[in-house]
Amino acid sequence: MSTESKQKEPLFSAKNKKLIFNPLSKDNPITVQVLGICSALAVTAKLEPAVVMSISVLAVLSIANVVISLLRNTIPPRIRIIVQLVVIAALVILVDQVLKAFAYDVSKQLSVFVGLIITNCIIMGRLEAFAMGNKPWPSFLDGLGNSFGYAWILIVVAFFRELFGSGSIYGYPVMEWLGIYGVGYKNNGMMILPPMALITVGIIIWVQRSRNSDLIEEN
Amino acid sequence: MQDLVNIFVKSIFIDNMVFAYFLGMCSYLAVSKTVKTSVGLGIAVIFVLGITVPVDFLINRYLLSAGALSWLGPDFANVDLSFLSFIMFIAVIASMVQLVEMVIEKFSPTLYTSLGIFLPLIAVNCAILGGSLFMQEREYETIAQATSFGLGSGVGWFLAIVGIAAIREKIRYSNVPAPLRGLGITFIITGLMGIAFMSFMGIKL
After folding, report:
1. What is the reported pLDDT for B106?
2. Which B residues, 75 through 104, put their C-beta within 8 Å of a C-beta on chain A?
3. Contact (CB, 8 A) for B161 and B31
4. Which one of A35, A150, B67, B104 is CB 3.0 to 4.6 Å from A121, fit for a cystine?
5. Are A107 and A114 in contact (CB under 8 A)?
6. CA–CA separation, B129 and B146 (whole Å)
7. Dist CA A123 CA B24 (whole Å)
8. Are A137 and B44 spatial neighbours (Cβ–Cβ below 8 Å)?
9. Could you say which residues from 37 to 76 on chain B have a Cβ atom under 8 Å away from some Cβ of chain A?
C-alpha cells in the first residue's frame, strides 16, 4: 500500500479534492468566474427545469472535459475551438434527444436553452482553461466540481423564485398547506418574471462577497 | 410590410434578447465597462445576427426540417434531420463569423480595426445561436421575416449593452457597498433595467 501510494497519486488526493470543492464557493463558475450566466438565469423560474438543466450541464461538462483531455495532445492548437464545439454539440444533441424521449414536458419548458448549452461559456471556458492541459481524471473532477458550483446557484435561485412566486417547492404547494393564504398572504408574481432572477443572483453575490472579503472588486 | 416592422419592433423591445431571455449575458457583463467598446461589440452583434439568422433559416427550410428534402425527389419526403440543427447552426455561425471577418478586413480596414477583436468573441455569444434557435422554434414563414427578426434582436442587444455601459461609467462615482461592487451591482442594475423594459410587454403588435 505504502509503496504504491508513493508511485501513484491517490484518486482523491488533497489537490483533487480542491478541484471539486473550490468551484463550490471561492471559485464559483457563476458568481466569481462569470461563466454560464445566460442559461442559469433563464431556467430558474421553477425548481424542476433548474434541476434538469443542472443535470444536463453536469453530464455534458464532465464528459466533454474527459474527451478533450484524452484528445489534448492530438488537437492542433489553431483549430481547437472547432474541435471543442463539435465535441460539445454532439454531446448536447444526445442530451436533447434523451430529454425529448424521457422528460418531454421539461424539455418543452427549457425550449432553446438545452441547445444553448453548446455556447454556454462554462463549458468552453473549462475546456480551454483546464482540460486542454490536464489528465483525464483531474479534468473529470474539475467538470464535476464546476457543474456542482453551477447547480447550487441555480437551485438556490429557483427555490426562492418558486417559493415566493408560485408558493410551491418542486411543484408541491407548500404555502397552501401552511394555510397562510387565509390570513391575507399573496404570491409575489414579480418573482416569476425574468428580471428578478438577476436581482436574486445579485443578492447571492452580495452575501457571498460580504462573507469572503477576498472576492471584493475595485469598482 | 407591416408584419416585418412588427417583428422588428417586437424583437427589439418586447422580446429583448438580454432582458427577456438573458442571452449573451457573458459578453454583456464582461465587455460593458466602457461605452466605446460596447458600441463596437453591439454593432458586430447586429451585423452577425443579420447575416446568420437568414442563412440558418434557409438551411432549416431546405435541409433540416421535416419533409424539407422533398425537393430532391419523392423518396426524401419523409426525411427529418432536425436533430442535426444544433451542430449545423453552430457550424454556420462559426464559419460566417470567420467569413465576415475576412470580408471586412478586405473591404473596410477602418471597420475591421474597430470590430476586429470582437468578431471571434461573437462565435460563442449565446445571443447568436439563440437567435437561430428562436427563429426555428417560432417558425417564421419567409426569409424577410427571419431577417427582420435577426436585425431586431441585434438592435435590442445593442441598446441593452450600450445602456448598461453608460450606467457603469457613471456608477464609478457612487458609493456602492463594497461586496456589491463590480459584478453584484451590475446584476441588480440589469434587473432594474429589465423591469423597465417590461413596461413594453402590454403592447400588442
Report:
1. 85
2. 83-87, 90-91, 94
3. yes
4. A35
5. yes
6. 14
7. 15
8. no
9. none
